[in-house]
Amino acid sequence: MKLVTALLYPLFALFLLGSFPSFAEQKQQLGKWDVHYMLMPTTMLDADVAKNYQLSRSRNYQLLNISVLNTADQQAQAVELSGTATNLAGQRQQLSFKPVKEGAALYYLAGVEARSEQKITIELSIRQGNELQVLKFTQDVYPE
């Protein structure tokens, strides 16, 4: 629950201030799944939470948070994730995901390097058995 609080509290505070950032959680329905995703500066993470989950807090890194839920019952799904982050210059990063389980929730976290303000395109393959879906989105990032 600490991770959920650490991720959502800053977003809630910004919402109350009337400034909803581009790193707010988003969702796409892919096949039988609701895929929730969020790309945010790691500097927004509480230092203790980052340490507990072995996440790097740096102005040059973004945190990609993925959660895959069954559309019918909203149960967290264990999946295999692979993918890339690509900037407009064509520089590509392979993403390495770390699963984090908290109670019934299951998150997949990956770091994305971003040294300057830029657009990043994330393309992920999400697999569970024979089911394969692709999530693709582009987002502006603003290192803190």
Automatic annotation (TrEMBL):
Residues 27-144 form the DUF4426 domain. Residues 1-24 form the signal peptide. Keywords: Signal. This is DUF4426 domain-containing protein. The lineage of its organism: Bacteria, Pseudomonadati, Pseudomonadota, Gammaproteobacteria, Chromatiales.
